[in-house]
Structures are given as structure tokens and as C-alpha cells.
Amino acid sequence: MTETIHAAGDARSTADAYGAAHAVGPEDFRRRREAVLEQVGQGVAVFAAAPELMKSRDTDVPYRQNSDFFYLTGFLEPGAVAVLTPHDPEHRFTLFVRPRDPEKETWSGLRAGVEGARERFGADAAYPVEELDERLKDLVEPADALWYGLLGDGGEMDRRMLGLLTRFRGTRPRSGKGPWDLRDPAQVLDPMRLIKEPGEIALMREAAELSARGHLAAMRAGGPDVGEWELQALLDSVFRAHAPDSGTAFPPIVGAAENGTILHYVTNARRIGEGELVLVDAGAEVGFYCGDITRVFPASGRFTPDQRAVYDVVHRALDAGIEAARPGAPMTAVHEASRRVLVEGMVSLGLLEGDVDALIEEETGFKRFFMHNTSHWLGLDVHDAGVYRDRDGEPLPLAPGMVLTVEPGLYIPVADDVPEHLRGIGIRLEDDVLVTADGPEVLTRGVPVDPDEVEHICCTRGPR
Fold first, then answer.
1. CATH superfamily of the domain spanning 195-459
2. Which string of DSSP letters, residue by residue, matches 57-98?
3. Which of these is catalytic: 209, 258, 407, 431?
4. Is 58 an active-site residue?
5. Rounded distance, CA 448 to CA 229, Å?
6. Which of 12-16, 441-445, 457-461 has the lowest mean pLDDT?
7. Could you report the per-residue pLDDT of 171-213, keeping only the tens digit for each?
8. Which pTM does this prediction carry?
9. Catalytic: 245?
10. 292 in active site
11. Has 428 been annotated as catalytic?
12. Residue 4 above 70 pLDDT?
């Protein structure tokens, strides 16, 4: 892949190993910053890198940059702060970064440093992060508003920004300078991130294809007596082996039998039994962009008639939801289309009784078996940035460039008041859909959803 993001020094490091280099480059980051600078007007926007997290004692959680910070800078190191200052041509984009330190770099890898921040990441000005407090006041003082998204964790950065506003409140009556209010940059960034650029779409296609390869591997390996954790390990391996910038987008869900009825089951500690269904919800991340697929397959190779009956209902609901994902349609149309098919299916399966329209209107009955929304935005985050309704409460209309999941499901508990032959069946089917001017484009059919094709894959498994 072509490198357009480089770390300090001549050697490659973790700071330039990301696949965004082959689809999203410095010009994309610069253009995004300019769009933010234009929209904040006379304000100043401040963005902090994600903090490093401790796993246990002196072991760190693998570092992953904050999505907004990456979206605007491409900078991957911790301990950094970006300041966008429209009124100051010498500091329109300022980066505060960890300075070069040969001793620390020996232990933890190369740093871009102050020079690298300017030369390789396009900063108009760059300073050691230790100088943030002394320089931030001057950068912010001419602004009418401070754009900063509170992390809400009471951490150092939140305290620093609130303290800065408090000090300006005290000095403003005599100086006339300093921002009056705090504004959330999400109101600018979220709409930008909601519409994917061509480079982003290319990375999402790659993530979707890689996600599909992982699911195919799980289907081929997931026979009786295999541990749920073994399939998780297989998924992790497929995703991570793809490229230096790839990995698992979120903890995989691998649920056999009634574990498939637990929406966010991540324990993955049970052995798969003969004749059971296996639900796998997993996605790969490539260059920071995520895939998200759910498939269900029969461990023994064939669906039982009851399993197939439930599967067919969810499959029809998936198709209906995808068909509704068209430009101009309200976001809620996807959920409504899938929900109607599911409620019709619940009646035909004997889970509910009554008129379908009335059951949908009442809501309480069907939510026992289908309790979540059908879609979420997808992109740099698995549940990506972007509102679903506007300030008037109206559902957001779909537009070309949006990427969303479609994931209907039926989750039948092991309970005395449901038909015995359906108890413990959990089916969720999920695809990633790009909205285009011509209609929905499914990105994730590299792994089949048709039950006959799924059975074919499972019936051609080799020996363990």
C-alpha cells in the first residue's frame, strides 16, 4: 500500500502502519480541517487524542486513536492535542505532541515529534505537549466560543478546558477577551462523518470483505464440540493477519443455542452441541474503518424445520429492510419495513396472536422477541457518529454516501409460555449497506445469507 502517513525517522513504526494511507491521505485530512475551520467561525476548536488505558498493573490496552482526532489529523500517537484557530493564519492548525526522546523511543517506538507534526502531518505550528497550558490561553483568547467535546470522565483535559473558561469569565469584564460559551464540535463533525468520502468507502469495502472472510472461516470450522472461544480466536486471526492496520472492530459475539438469544453475549465459553445453531456477530477494522456482519449457521450442517422457519422470517425481514434503504427515505423506514415482516412472522410461528397492525401499534408484545432497532450508522466507529433524528424529532432522510447496518432478529427465550419447539432459537442477520443514488448496495455478501448456501458451506466442512 502507498504510504502517505509517515512517522519520525527513516524506519517504519506503528505511527505509519495504517491502511488509511492507501485511500485517505494528507489532503483529505487538510480538507476536513478547513471545513471545520469555516464552520466554527470566530471560535477555536480543540481536540484531544485518546488517552492510554491500563489493562492491569503495568500492561496497557492496545492503543486506538480517538476517531474524531484521527478524522481531522491522521495523527496516531497518544498524548496529543490539536487546536484549530481560524483567526490566526500562523496557527490555523496547531499540534501539541510528545517530543522526540531517544530513550523512550527505544522502549515504545518512534515518535513524530514537533518537526514531524509540521512536516508530515501538515501542522502550521507544533509544540511539545508540555507547553499546552502556557500557549492555549493565547490561542483561545480571541475566540467568541470554545469548541470542545467534553469527555465527561472528569479527566485532566476536561478540567483544563473548564478551568480555562472559568478564568476567562473572571477576566473578560475588564479585558473584553475570551470565549463566552462552550460548544460541542459534534454538531459540525457528525454530519461530515455521516457522508462517506470515496476513500472512506474504499476502506469500508475492504473491511466488509475481510469481515466476510472471517465469517466464512467460522462457518467452515463451527461444527459440534468446537468451543465458541475457538471461533472467536479464528475470527481474530483472520482479521489481524490481513494487514498491519487491520484487526477486530469489536469483541466478537459467538453464541451457540440459547446463547444466541443474548444480544451482546461476549463470554464465548460454551462448546457447540449437535444440532445447535451458532450466531456470530463480528466485524473487521481496516484503516480505522469498521465492518459489522451477523450470520447464523447450523452446527450439524442442516437447519431443522423449526430453525429454518425462524431463519426464513428473519431473512425476509433483512431483505425488506435493505430494500427500504433508499435515498430520500427516512431512516426509520428501514426499521419499519423489517419490523412488519418480523411481526407477521411472529404471528405465523405462533409466538403472537392478533392483528399485525395492532400488534405493531401496541409494541409491548413483539418487543419480547425483537427488542432493538434495525440499523445503526457504520464507519470509523461501529456505532458511528451521526444523529438519527433532527432537532424537530423528524427521522433523518437517507442520502448517498451514508453507510448503515440492517440487522433484524428474533430471540425466543427458553420459557414455558412460548412454543416448546421454538425455545432457545436466536436468529439475527446483519449486512452493511451503502446508500447510493441508485439504491442500496450491500457490501457484505462475500458471506452468503441464503440458507441453502449457508448449509452448503457447513456441509462441506473438512475434518477438524
1. Creatinase/methionine aminopeptidase superfamily (3.90.230.10)
2. TTEEPPP---HHHHHHH----SS-EEEE-TT-GGGSEEEEEP
3. 407
4. yes
5. 23
6. 12-16
7. 887 787 889 999 999 999 999 999 999 999 999 999 999 999 9
8. 0.93
9. no
10. yes
11. yes
12. no
